Every structure is written in structure tokens, then in C-alpha cells.
Amino acid sequence: MSTMRWRHLAGLALLILSQPARPQTETAQTTWMGTVTYVVDGDTVHVRPAEGGEIHKIRMLGMDAPEICQAGGAAAKQALQERVLKRSVTVRMQGMDVYGRDLATIYLSREDVGEWMVRRGHAWSYRYRQDPGPYGQEESNAKLLGRGLFEDMSPEYPQNFRRRYGRCAYRH
Predict the structure, then answer these.
(1) Could you give the angle at the alpha carbon of 149 between the alpha carbons of 131 and 152, nearest 5°?
(2) Which region holds residue 146: left if phi is over 0, alpha if psi is between -120 and 50, else beta?
(3) What is the DSSP letter of 123?
(4) What is the CATH number of the domain that holds 146?
(5) Which residues contact 15 (CB under 8 A, 6 or more apart)?
(6) Domain total for the chain?
(7) Single pTM value for the model
């Protein structure tokens, strides 16, 4: 192997070893209870674990709500606030996104909150290529019934909005 390749591998190993490890409890515990303390927008909330500790900023999986500055964004945030703010929820962690938010499914009692948001027409099922996403049927029903965002015949999917205008400037 060339000297250049060895240096590259050694540098990569140092980079990996220098990354802070996540606490054991965080990686081992994937489901936990907490209270929603703040609603950022239609798909991001802050949750304080019931056992105490740091508040988690959570991006809800499976759905995509409009940006806060986008048509329907304020309504989505309000709907989510009315549903979960100051309520006890179950959080099923599934990773972390590039913005440092925990990725999770949130349940109010046994109800999937993301599914509830899509069913009410406050968000889209998060799709990838031709896959309609986990709440595709709920989105289709909301469109058929003209609920929330789908009262408008052609609401702009958040990913397209972000491509055209970037993310909204608001405080997290």
C-alpha cells in the first residue's frame, strides 16, 4: 500500500476515534416517555424525558409539514401544539439528522402523532422517489376530503419550497 494511502487511513482512524461516544443509556434506550415542552413547527418538538435530563429536539419521522413561513406552516404548528404541548408522549428514537435533531416517532397514548398530522391534512407523508411513504393512504384520504393543506388544489411540497426559497429564518 502506498504511503499516501496509509496516511489517509491513519487520518481517518484518528478522526473516528476522536468523535465523542454517545452515552450508553441513549444508545441502549430507544423508547422513552416524556413531556412536550415546545413545538418548533409542524414536525419538530422539544421533549423533556420523564426521568429528567436534557430536553431532546425531535424531528418527527414519516411526515413533512410545511415550513413555518410557507402557506399552511402556522396552521400545522398550531395543530401540533393543540395536540401535544404539555402532554405526556412516548418517543421511539430512530437516529439523528444532519441538524443534530433526534429522529423519532412520537405517540400520544397509542396514537402515532405523525399519522394524525397527515390524516388531518397538516403534513405530507414523507416520500422517497416513488415510495408514497408510511402515511401515503392517510395523505390520499386528506387530499380526497380537502383537509388542511389540501383545501388548496396544489399545495407546494416542503422539499420543493426549501429548494426554491431555502429554510425559513426562525428561532428554534
Answers:
(1) 105
(2) left
(3) S
(4) 2.40.50.90
(5) none
(6) 1
(7) 0.79
Question: What Rg value do the Cα atoms of the chain yield, rounded?
Answer: 19
CA angle (149 as vertex; 117, 45 as ends), nearest 5: 35
Asked whether residue 59 is domain-assigned, the answer is yes
Is 66:109 a contact under the CB 8 Å cutoff? no
Is 1 inside a domain boundary? Answer: no
**For 121-139, how does the pLDDT look when each residue is reduced to its tens digit (9 = 90+)?**
999 999 888 888 999 999 9
Contact 92, 39 (CB under 8 A): no
Name the residue among 61, 17, 59, 16 with its Cα closest to residue 40: 59
Which residues, at least 6 apart from 139, have a Cβ–Cβ distance to it below 8 Å? 118, 124, 125, 132, 133
Note the pLDDT of residue 154: 83
| Torsion region of 166: left, alpha or beta (phi above 0 gives left; psi -120 to 50 gives alpha) | left
Largest separation between any pair of C-alpha atoms in the chain: 65
d(CA 87, CA 113): 12
C-alpha cell at 43: 414536525
Q: What is the pLDDT of residues 55-92, one digit of tens each?
A: 999 999 999 999 999 999 999 999 999 999 999 999 99
Q: Among 19-28, 84-93, 143-152, 156-165, where is mean pLDDT lowest?
A: 19-28
